[in-house]
Automatic annotation (TrEMBL):
Domain named Dihydroprymidine dehydrogenase: residues: 19-128
Protein name per Swiss-Prot or TrEMBL: Glutamate synthase (NADPH), homotetrameric
FAD/NAD(P)-binding domain sequence ranges: 143-450
A Pfam family the protein falls into: Pyr_redox_2
Any one GO molecular function term: oxidoreductase activity
SUPFAM superfamilies: alpha-helical ferredoxin, Nucleotide-binding domain
Length: 466
């Protein structure tokens, strides 16, 4: 029986003092008892809004009921019907803005912790040493190329492979997973979880071609010449933005992409065991207020910075990062500096950054994003000593594939133009989805786009109609 008197169960976490000295996961996950107790809170609504809130439409009430009954295996199978990455989504989905925000309980109480339950069942399978590999339809003989192995590409590959198509996944980096492996740090998303979810993909017959840069190693048109009949572009938005202010080319000024890639994918945090150096120094400043900035600043503390600062041009209220991650950062001792913007970096004689000049801001009227616009306060500049700067103000589209693919239209920001419902681009046989279409967004939105594109690609492959 649902019990609304049970409070939302807290997530056990590593204590802040301990966790800033390691890269192990911060959130430790529910025990079976906690999970069942939390699942008992679900009132099994007749009209479950939570399903509508999930971009891949997991049958949330059913999986939660199965958790409450202790049938974790069936709960996981239910989730996997629409989501092959439950261990990832349960950890990094902005649940508070998706499935949980529309939970009926949240009107009077706190919402059911849907994401934490999803993570629990995914982790339960690992603890049990099991791997439920989904069934695959008989081979159709059709060959499909998926470019980019982020959550968008992984979803397309899984869906099409399950329908019996022969899928090859092309990835520029040496490991599959996209931002899940190169961007999001180990302490928020262990790489073993991503690797395992990619392993399931290989088990259902997806071929992985790593270190393969489409647009260089082979163009999209060359993939068609190689016999692929359809192509999905899940390239992500991995091109770092800078502010174009003086001193950004000084040594010690990193883009968040480079900083996080060195730390995560190239394991700089395990130096010298792994041969990737990274310079952190005593005082690190990270420019930006999103999830990427939180990941960079929290990584800096773990790498030994004495002070790790966030410099954000608006106030805490406007910060786009998830509340949970801002709170984690606060607990870990990150120093937040609001209403400030860097105007230049100053180097020493060796060309290394040693200071930043900051300008104070105040908030004006809301801008197009609906957030109050930061307005500079004239003459308020001051300098701060720094050893390392990480610029985390957003990313754009890499032009490599669009520029090497005739007939593929992009918008004024360089993102690929694709139909919102099908993912079809302006080039016959080519689909696109995820951050390369929408700009930097979320894991689950990229997966939702992948799901829609896979449906449309299947129709094309089986009917030949574009
Ligand atoms: C540091 C960081 C933290 C984040 N935190 C969260 C979070 O907590 N929750 C959340 O929901 N979202 C988060 N996001 C956003 C989320 O990760 C992205 O929205 C999501 O990964 C987009 O998926 P995608 O499939 O479009 O592309 P990506 O994950 O970007 O993957 C694209 C892949 O394509 C490959 N590729 C690109 N060009 C080529 C080419 N020419 N040939 C071959 N391969 C190519 C890239 O190497 C990459 O592996 C975060 C992003 C970052 C950077
Ligand atoms: S995938 Fe994300 S949005 Fe969907 S149920 Fe899980 S946590 Fe919620």
């Amino acid at each position: 029986m649902p019990d609304t008197k049970i409070p939302r169960q807290a997530m056990p976490k590593q204590r802040p003092k301990e966790r800033i000295r390691n890269f192990n996961e911060v959130a430790l996950g529910f025990s079976a008892e906690l999970a069942q107790k939390e699942a008992e809170r679900c009132i099994q609504c007749k009209k479950p809004f939570c399903i509508e809130g999930c971009p891949v439409e997991i049958d949330i009430p059913v999986f939660i009921e199965l958790v409450a009954e202790g049938d974790f295996e069936s709960a996981l199978a239910k989730i996997r019907e629409t989501n092959l990455l439950p261990g990832v989504c349960g950890r990094v989905c902005p649940q508070e803005e998706q499935c949980e925000i529309v939970c009926v309980l949240s009107k009077r109480f706190e919402p059911v912790a849907i994401g934490r339950l999803e993570r629990f069942v995914a982790d339960w399978e690992i603890r049990e040493g099991k791997m439920d590999v989904p069934s695959v339809a008989p081979s159709t003989g059709h060959k499909v190329a998926v470019v980019g192995s982020g959550p968008g590409g992984l979803t397309v590959a899984a869906d099409l492979a399950r329908l019996g198509h022969k899928v090859t996944l092309f990835e520029a980096l040496h490991k599959p997973g996209g931002v899940l492996v190169y961007g999001i740090p180990e302490f928020r998303l262990p790489k073993a979880i991503v690797a395992r979810e990619c392993e399931i993909l290989e088990k259902i017959g997806v071929e992985l071609k790593l270190d393969f840069v489409v647009g260089r190693t082979a163009t999209v048109d060359e993939l068609f010449e190689m016999g692929y009949e359809a192509c999905f572009l899940g390239l992500g938005a991995g091109l770092p933005w800078f502010m174009n202010i003086p001193g950004e080319n000084l040594v010690g000024v990193y883009s968040a992409n480079e900083y996080l890639t060195r730390i995560n994918l190239m394991k700089a945090y395990l130096f010298p065991e792994y041969d990737t150096p990274i310079r952190v120094g005593e005082r690190v400043i990270v420019i930006g207020g999103g999830n990427v900035a939180m990941d960079a600043v929290r990584s800096s503390l773990r790498l030994g910075a004495k002070e790790a600062h966030i410099i954000y041009r608006r106030s805490r209220k406007e910060m786009p990062a998830r509340d949970e991650e801002i709170e984690n950062a606060e607990d870990e001792g990150v120093i937040f500096n609001f209403l400030l913007n860097p105007v230049r970096y100053i180097g020493n004689e060796a060309g290394r950054v040693k200071q930043v000049e900051l300008l104070k801001m105040e908030l004006g009227e809301p801008d197009a994003s609906g957030r109050r616009r930061p307005v500079p306060i004239e003459g308020s500049e001051y300098k701060m000593d720094v050893d390392t700067v990480v610029v985390a103000i957003g990313n754009g589209a890499n032009p490599l594939v669009p520029s090497s693919t005739p007939g593929l239209e992009t918008n004024k920001w360089g993102y690929i133009v694709a139909d919102a419902e099908t993912g079809k681009t302006t080039k016959k046989g080519v689909w696109a989805g995820g951050d390369i279409v929408t700009g930097a967004a979320t894991v689950i939105l990229a997966m939702g786009a992948g799901r829609k594109a896979a449906r449309s690609m299947h129709e094309y492959l089986t009917t030949g109609e574009w």
